[in-house]
Amino acid sequence: MQFDTFSLFPEVFDSYLNTSILRRAQDSGALTVHTYNIRDWATDKHRTTDDTPYGGGGGMVLKPEPVFAAVESILGSPPSCPVILLSPQGRTFTQKMAFELAEFPHLGLICGRYESVDERIRQHLVTDSISIGDYVLTGGELPALVLIDAITRLLPGVLGDSEAPQDDSYATGLLEYPHYTRPSEFRGWGIPEVLLSGNHAQIARWRRREALRRTLLHRPDLINNVELSQDDLAFLQDLGYTPNDPQNTTHQDD
Fold first, then answer.
1. In the annotation, is 115 catalytic?
2. Closest CA to 41 of 65, 12, 61
3. DSSP string covering 194-211, please?
4. Which residue of the set 153, 208, 209, 219 is catalytic?
């Protein structure tokens, strides 16, 4: 999969892209990332990429000319792939969206900066606008890395365990169950006996219930969107769950 990123600070990407899974994904050919400096397409001697907003107000606005020129010179006009603007005004990124975007062989990412981008970029250049949460960052570089990381993990052959993404938090609609590793006892704290039993059916049931418990405790809003079995429902009701109640919380410790 290929990502073309457009930013005023492309050097932000270097360290993270050359670490761990993303580095190995690039070495294997599963991932290609090109970063482009929008300033390279500014035409004045000061390489100006922003200006004050029409109508007044604070902050600076990213100009349309260098952004359009950068994207169209690399991706064509119209662009040959989806172009995503990273912006706090976009739709909130989810694991479901990561799976959907992983189906594309090529994505363009525009990193917003300053107060905002000229609205004509949003209206006539990008095909989607995505936010990574209900807060504001200095720029879109970190959100772009979040998308690249989350999507790359879903590509075939990137992770050692091909089934791992299917069990991740949010992949099933639930937060992931707790994990333990050696030693079996640490500072007097042990691990659940069921994990040492070798009974895979019991382990699977324990994991499902712990995922339900953890989700009800930390993200009760997710529960109402999950397909629940009768066993799931009985377990949750013992924890204080009421179907379709947006205020669901558990009275038990995690």
1. yes
2. 65
3. GGGS--HHHHHHHHHHHH
4. 153
Q: What is the mean pLDDT of each run of 10 residues along the chain (254 residues)?
A: 98 96 97 98 94 91 97 97 96 96 98 90 97 94 98 93 65 88 94 96 96 95 92 96 72 46
All domains in the chain, ordered by first residue = 2-152 (3.40.1280.10), 172-254 (1.10.1270.20)
Active site residue 168: yes
d(CA 246, CA 216): 11
Query: Phi and psi of 209, rounded to 5°?
Result: -65, -40
Q: Which amino acid is at 5?
A: T
185 has catalytic annotation: no
Q: Is 88 a catalytic residue?
A: yes
Q: Which helix (H) or strand (E) holds 106?
A: strand 106-111
pTM confidence score: 0.85
